[in-house]
Prior knowledge:
Blueprint: H1 9-14, H2 16-42, H3 49-53, H4 59-84, E1 88-91, E2 96-103, E3 106-113, E4 121-124, E5 133-134
Antiparallel strand pairs: 1-2, 2-3, 3-4, 4-5
Helix pairs in contact: 2-4
Amino acid sequence: MDDKRYFSVDEANELIPELELRFSKVMQLRAQLRVSYQELEKQGESPTAQTLERTDGEPEQVRTRGRFRGLMETLTEELHAIEETGVSVKDLDIGLCDFLGSREGRDVWLCWQYGEKRVGFWHDLDTGFSGRQPLQGEHPARLLH
């Protein structure tokens, strides 16, 4: 794929303030979505694509569906904005993101989790979060592509 964006540790760290803001919104949106989901269930509906498109029903149901749709759209926009930077969102529950990098001539993921102040870990493309290894002691130039 020709449109891969490679990050150095410094380049990834420059995005952390933006990611913190966006993931703060994502976490809030997800909490609001859970509440709206529960409200829809109490009203006898499951928020499926079909039920969310409906415009009929009690005014409360129509409002709740509209709120849920709006929250979903906003969440999708936030995630799209993150992905447009070249960052790969891996887990919404913990705010896990990876930045494509290079180490010793091979592609790796530079790994960041919401709440961390900087990128401090990396892992091979196929190992995931459980394979995270600290960057400490690494010279940043070794992680440049």
